[in-house]
Design goal:
With about 300 residues, the chain is α/β, with parallel strands linked by helices. About 35% of the residues lie in helices and about 25% in strands. The longest helix has 16 residues.
Length: about 300
């Protein structure tokens, strides 16, 4: 089942003669499957936040349409099943963390008998329970981001939409957020989020989309999009003869404490032929696995190519 679907989704800002020449989003067609973590990527001004606002029914498309759970995003049943963190959340500085989440819980119509326990659950999930009675006005940007994430998961959403959730978080906080996203996925939640931190996206996302200047460049599973750049050979202990044969062609070599070796090879006919020969002579000596370009390398390649074409 597709949780989010867009059909030629287009948004041009302005009105009549004051419309911009280029649309912020141009004929976007994507389908996000249930239960996956999807990374929505692109440089600044690519159309990511515009897309999220359209999905959230905060703005209206110029052309095309978007479906969430197979329905129009304005449907109240759709809204009840979404958790959302905008890119620049605003908070009332005089409220405590608990009071703010209590208001959010009332808006979500969480029963009074369950409200306190659920608030304490989400505060614990974002490591903010000891700040429950502190005023939001005294929080750092990273602390406010954690509270924003807490309100986004408060209603146990089926779809969690996060716009740049990693902004303002230190490395420890980023890891905790990644753990929350992984846990939400385990609970059956579909997660759709934008981010500029590509190394984190690569670790936790199943699928990605890349936008540039409002145009979709690609969409699919990460393991299918990233190109194979070579092979990694793990040589088991006691096979030093194999290592000697292969080392001269390897672009990287690491000897591990147990006496085994990891050898990295670029795609070349000579290297692949030698690996095949060694594997044929000693089939149990090597464990082979493909090496792929990083998401960062793939991202810049796609964006730069699209810029050159335009």
């Amino acid at each position: 089942m597709n949780i989010i679907e867009t059909f030629d989704l287009t948004k041009t800002y302005g009105f009549l003669f004051w419309k911009k020449k280029e649309p912020a989003l141009d004929k976007l067609n994507i389908a996000i499957q249930e239960g996956l973590v999807h990374g929505f990527l692109g440089p600044n001004g690519a159309g990511k936040t515009t897309t999220i606002k359209l999905i959230m029914d905060l703005i209206f498309p110029t052309h095309g349409e978007v479906k969430v759970f197979g329905k129009d995003p304005s449907d109240l049943d759709v809204k009840k099943n979404i958790g959302f963190l905008p890119d620049s959340p605003a908070f009332s500085s005089y409220l405590s963390a608990y009071d703010f989440l209590n208001i959010c819980a009332k808006l979500h119509q969480i029963h009074a008998l369950k409200r306190r326990d659920r608030i304490m659950e989400v505060l614990a999930a974002v490591k903010m329970e000891k700040h429950r009675d502190s005023k939001l006005g005294g929080f750092s940007r990273g602390m406010l981001q954690r509270i924003g994430i807490a309100q986004a998961i408060l209603n146990k959403p089926k779809l969690l939409i996060l716009d740049e959730p990693l902004v303002g978080l230190d490395p420890h906080g980023r890891q905790e957020l990644k753990d929350i996203i992984v846990e939400e996925k385990k609970n059956g939640t579909t997660v759709f989020f934008s981010s500029h931190i590509l190394s984190d996206v690569e670790k936790i996302c199943d699928t990605i989309s890349i936008l540039n200047r409002g145009v979709l460049l690609c969409c699919g599973r990460i393991d299918e999009l990233l190109s194979v750049t070579g092979l990694r050979a793990h040589v088991n202990p006691g096979n030093d003869d194999c290592v000697k044969e292969l080392m001269g062609l390897a672009s990287g070599t690491i000897k591990l404490p147990n006496g085994s070796w990891d050898l990295v090879f670029q795609n070349s006919e000579e290297a692949m032929a030698k690996i095949s020969q060694v594997k044929e002579k000693a089939p149990d000596a090597l464990v082979l696995a493909p090496t792929r370009e990083s998401l960062e390398e793939f991202f810049f390649r796609k964006v730069e190519n699209s810029t050159d074409i335009s």
